[in-house]
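pls design
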């Protein structure tokens, strides 16, 4: 079975470039600086029209922590329903309680609302208190997969936990490593953890084409983009011809 490469993107042009470079699936986000938030309607609709591979929008109404109010959870539910209406293939979200446990009640309710879409529980998991208990909760909620860096900033540091999660999951939920994954370490991560899907942004920055800059307001106008060569390298490693 072929290994799946998911690419996290933050604008339409990057999504197109990622598909052309060989990505198998897109995680669609806005606001890299905030860790990813929900794409706008126009962004969602444009990507749905342009991209042929599976696309999973991030559903996160704000940056910051992963404890969400009743109103925010209702926003998440409505955005999930919009993604179903636009015929996306899956959604990505993550909810924690204030004590660092998974918000089981609302996660299960949102998974049900998303059906039949896939649900990826994102790296909110890496902020939870007891990852092994949390994994069982996600299985009970019906999540399709878990994106994790093994509760470290970089997945290479969290590999022992990722391996444990894969073993504990026992094919009941897909464990997908991400954060700091690249062509230099992807084979090590696959070998160590025994995963079938991997996640990266393959992120680079490109210069703004704006000719005029107000010298009184220094700003970084550079744009998040994707390194197509890096995607191709990873693909060649994980699925050699």
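designed seq:
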């Amino acid at each position: 079975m072929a290994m799946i490469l998911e690419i996290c993107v933050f604008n339409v042009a990057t999504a197109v470039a990622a598909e052309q470079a060989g990505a198998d699936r897109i995680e669609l986000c806005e606001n890299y600086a905030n860790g990813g938030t929900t794409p706008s309607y126009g962004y969602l609709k444009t990507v749905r029209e342009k991209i042929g591979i599976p696309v999973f929008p991030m559903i996160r109404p704000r940056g910051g922590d992963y404890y969400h109010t009743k109103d925010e959870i209702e926003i998440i539910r409505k955005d999930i329903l919009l993604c179903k209406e636009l015929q996306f293939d899956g959604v990505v979200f993550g909810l924690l309680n204030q004590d660092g446990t998974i918000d089981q009640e609302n996660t299960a309710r949102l998974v049900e609302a998303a059906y039949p879409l896939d649900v990826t529980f994102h790296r909110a998991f890496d902020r939870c208190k007891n990852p092994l208990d949390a994994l069982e909760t996600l299985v009970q909620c019906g999540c399709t997969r878990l994106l994790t860096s093994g509760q470290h900033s970089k997945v290479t540091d969290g590999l022992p936990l990722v391996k444990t999660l894969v073993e504990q999951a026992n094919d009941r939920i897909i464990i997908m490593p991400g954060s700091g994954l690249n062509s230099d370490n992807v084979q090590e991560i696959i070998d160590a953890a025994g995963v079938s899907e991997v996640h990266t942004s393959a992120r680079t920055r490109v210069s703004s084409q704006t000719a005029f800059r107000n010298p009184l307001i220094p700003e970084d106008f550079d744009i998040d983009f994707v390194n197509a060569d890096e995607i191709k390298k990873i693909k060649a490693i994980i699925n050699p011809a």
